[in-house]
Description:
Elements: H1 40-46, E1 61-63, E2 74-77, E3 84-87, E4 93-95
Parallel strand pairs: 1-4
Antiparallel strand pairs: 2-3
Amino acid sequence: MIDLAAHGIDLAGWAHNIDGLPGHVSRKLFTFPWIACAAPDYLNVHGVPQTPMDLAGHVQIAFRNKGTGQIDSWRFASPLDATMIRHVPRPKHVFDDGAAA
Length: 101
């Protein structure tokens, strides 16, 4: 990330953490849900996973965070108590562009 202040930029929208950047202040404006999805034909052949643990047996596409170089884990909220369930995909394909993924 560039130093916004040094480039004369007063306001920017960003989806990354800016902690540790001097002179920058962040404020969360909104959150958005991610969804797990699949093509109907894929699900007809391979079945519909019922839980995040079922995903281990499915072909997956992953998103690589350009900032960290790491593959983002998938996060699900448990329907029982809303605790966070993390799934680390073992992807067949990895993209670092959301539109491509």
